[in-house]
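Researcher: Here's the sequence for the chain we discussed earlier.
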Amino acid sequence: MNKDNIVTLSVPEAFLGLDFSDRDWVKQAKGTSVYVPIFSNGFEGKDGKFTVALTYPIINRETGKYLGLVAALIPTVQFFQHYGNIYNINSQYLAVLDRQSVQLIHPVKSLVGTRFFGNYTQQITGHNAVLNNLIRQVMAGQPGFAAYGFINGERLNTGYPVFVQGRPTYFVFVITPTASIYSHINNVVFTEKIESFSLLAGVTAAISYQVE
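Model: Thanks. This is the structure I predict for it:
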């Protein structure tokens, strides 16, 4: 992208010649005088996919003049699906927010691109105070976790801030239905009981044999 924010090289070629001057991540790159990468908030790309941009400004070292930028547009669904479930809300899944609490991925597709603290999401979550406090804590840069009741059962939510250039930029949450945790615990306890019973039966049989 040149100094006028016009795309001069692109894969796919459909972006060639487009003007990206209205994008915040372009304005931020153009306004910097240092060589640092810039990570954008989420936005809907020209291809209709929800996306984040990673940009790097090109600056003349001698004059400090802005010459353009190099940008990589990363579709959020294709990126985060490599790190966990982002489709099935009935099992453990990932959810990710940007600095404006916009949801970059979520199994409920209608939530993608909406603000977590917006009316739409808050109505769906029932203005859950425990969940809201957790989100605020993580967005303030502090990892956290919380258990709370939801429409389709209790959830355990663990959140982590992702720091870029020392600033919390993205926020990753791992949400787990507690029923699956309890089920796993029950399986472990059942296995332990069987092993204990087998051991007890073996000891009893050995004692009985010696007595005879």
